[in-house]
Amino acid sequence: MQQAEGPGQELTHLVEDIGQTDTLAAAAANNVLEGDAATTDSFTATTRLSNTCAISDKVPRVTGTNEAVRKAGRGSSMDYQVAKRALELKRDMETNLVGVNTAEVTGGATTARITGSLSCWLETNTSNGTGGSDGSAGNSTHTDGTQRALTESLFQTVLQSIWTAGGDADCVMAGAFNRRKMSTFTGNATREVMAESGKLHASVSYYESDWGMLEIIPNRFSRSRDVYILQKDMFSVAYLRPFQLSDLAKDGDSERKQLLAEYCLEVRNEASSGAVWDLTTS
């Protein structure tokens, strides 16, 4: 990642280099003669991936009076506001990463930089509704198509595509409605009552497929019309500036601070994962 060198540096330089992606040659019968001369294999250059770092912040403000008086249940109003805004900032960041369909924007003097969201990266192993199409490398948005109900067949088709492409998906991320929909998959047709606890087990926390075990994770912030099937170690949040808290200039009889993070979504190889797009949400 390139660091800012001064006020004159172009914002387009603040791009996270998230490494190289590569593919293996197709498996083939491999037999050579004893004592044969070695022949160099052909190779394809790796593809360099990048994403733009976005900046997100929260600015708590507390008046002098509010900080001076005795408070019920807490010592410092500013400390309370900072803790609260930190939670809000994390929620905003997750929305930027997985809750919107926003392509990378390198920004400028009057335009904020935007990190390419997850929906703009997945293109190899996807299922689209009619009229829908995939984004690419974080640079173009996914085009929404006609919504349809999530089915186990749609889900398994994408899973098989991921496995064929070399991925090892280990988790599913879905909004509330389609998280419940997954609990009706026929693979979980048998419901059990635990007599000793009086509990009815009517939901699926893990899905054991022909291509491995997947944890099902409900996500409040991902788009409810999308179900992601992910290999978790292929995704991360890369920070140019981790969370930092700074004092701002005093503004009259009040105190302000700025809580800030500069980050982007790191996608190491999108072919490891996939998505079922364009799902009904009610």
Could you walk me through the main structural features you see in this protein, from its secondary elements to its overall organization?
A hairpin with a 6-residue loop joins strand 12 and strand 13. The protein is of the alpha+beta class. The longest helix has 23 residues, at 77-99. It is globular and about 85 Å long. The strands form four sheets. It has a six-stranded mixed beta sheet with strand order 5-14-11-6-10-9. Strands 3, 4, 12 and 13 form a four-stranded antiparallel beta sheet that branches. It has four helices and 14 strands. The chain has helices at residues 64-68, 77-99, 152-164, 176-182, and strands at 15-21, 47-52, 54-58, 61-63, 126-127, 171-174, 192-194, 199-201, 206-209, 212-218, 227-230, 235-247, 254-267, 274-276. Helix content is 17%, strand content 28%.
Tally of separate helices:
4
Query: How much strand content do the residues show?
Result: 25-35%
Order of helices and strands: EEEEHHEHEHEEEEEEEE
Number of E-state strands: 14
Q: What's the shape?
A: globular
Helix share of residues?
10-25%
Order of strands, widest sheet: 5-14-11-6-10-9
Structural class: alpha+beta
- pLDDT averaged residue by residue: 85
Distance between the termini: 42 Å
Main beta-sheet annotation: 6 strands, mixed
Rg: 24 Å
Question: Which residues form runs of ≥5 with pLDDT under 50?
Answer: 1-13
